Amino acid sequence: MLFKCVILESGTSAKKQNANPTFEVPPSGRILDKTQNAKRRFSFDSNTMIVKTDSIPPAISADSNEKSWAVVGGGMLGLTLALRMAKQGHKVTLIEAAPSLGGLAAVWNLGDVTWDKHYHVTLLSDDRLRHMIDELGLSEKMKWVETKTGFYTGGKFYSMSDTREFLAFPPLNLIEKLRLGGTIFLASKIKNWKRLEKLSVEKWLRRWSGNSVFEKIWEPLLKCKLGEAYRKTAASFIWAHTSRMYKARRTGLKKEMFGYVEGGYRTIIESIEAQLRELGVEIMTSSPTQKIEKQTDGRFQVDFKGHDSRHFDRVIMTTPNAILSRVCPDLSADEKAKFDSVEYLGIICASLLLKKPLSVYYVTNLTDDWVPMTAVIEMTTIVDTEEFDGNSLVYLPKYIPAEHSMFERTDADIKEDFLAALERMYEGFTRDDVLAFEMSRVRNVMAIPTIGYSESLPSQKSSVDGLYVVNSSYILKGNLNVNETITIAEDAMKRVLKEDLASTARN
User: Fold this and answer.
1) How many folded domains does the chain comprise?
2) Concatenated DSSP letters for 210-273?
3) 229 lies in a domain?
4) CA distance to 32, 201, 266, 307, 446, per residue, from 42 (Å)
5) pTM: predicted TM-score of the whole model, two decimal places
6) Which side of the chain, N or C, has fewer Cβ within a 10 Å radius?
7) Tens digits of per-residue pLDDT, 200-224?
């Protein structure tokens, strides 16, 4: 339905099991990596599923004739780059600060279940992601479900899952409904997104939806999602959300069909990791990058926290802009200023394993300003409850600016606010229903598309020869989701990196 477009997407599943044929899990709880006859041992981190290495990989020989590439950041964007480059015959090292791969798509333990930290869905229109899933041999594990959308406004729940329910929506009169529907339809038809980038989202929505619809619907949703930053956000923000949802409906079914891979993003990430290892890609986890500097011999020295430096011929940064000025001192002053000027939206996201579901809605949009969350995401309206031992999974995201004071609050305080809100909203909910509760905090999730945003970004090919920036801040014609991050990676291969890649492949 229409209003899924106003919530940033980000969920799927996996139980504790030996799903990766590359690893053998003995009774001791240690893991033996059998890939390429390796003899490395791994250990589980208490709150992650993927593994971290006991030893540091050997350095690459400096006298090798082939060029070495470092991809910094092991999220889906970095994983895609590493996979595509390795398949072209490049020597690639994938570097990740966390103990496990995946970034925003990483998994963790929620009670006795291993599951995604953040919610993700696949749309029928997500061509790049679906191609990746097919390429990994996972298409048969793809499941599709028709979903429903809810609205919580004025202390009441309303379904907004089809045209009939939209027309019956009590908070708006007929004229307001027509203007709201017309605004969304208009946004879906706009091709020149750069024109919208020059207008504020508030000005554009007030013009087409009218003041009353803006104040009843759009403003509460924008504040919930962006805080006061919505006042400087471009109208392209709304266009990106609506166009994705309308494109999904144009696939032929005319329904809101959301999908997931059995086992969730653990299945996808493990499959990519297995292919990377088969292709000879070196994977370094638990390796926070502290500094990247070009040396007199033309190579880059990459310094890490906790172990020795490494040297590479080329470096691709997929990390948020917020760290680039600090980690890459060779960037020009202008580049540093432009990267630093990008404002990020962060997230505090609670994952709840419950004895029973809260509602029938995948997403419940919230307009009452007392509610401390951005939305309620009922993941088990999409994912089979067998993935959760018959229980339900709910996400409670709160999107806030990266420097928001909420990041300084304790998990216990936020948990209390969230649970109290659920008790007030859902008549049948009690705290006894909560089997597990975990909290994720990420400060730099999505670059906020401010007015004139695309014109303020520096080139992805930096002023430092051989250093590239390919991250999600370059998503200009969509919103942040896995399909868009794959698109950014693959488009960079064809445009920004093409010439350099052609000259550095293995013979």
Assistant:
1) 1
2) -HHHIIIIIHHHHHHHHGGGGGGBBTHHHHHHHHHHHHHHTTTT-S-EEEEETTTHHHHHHHHH
3) yes
4) 7, 49, 17, 17, 32
5) 0.84
6) C
7) 999 999 999 999 999 998 998 888 7
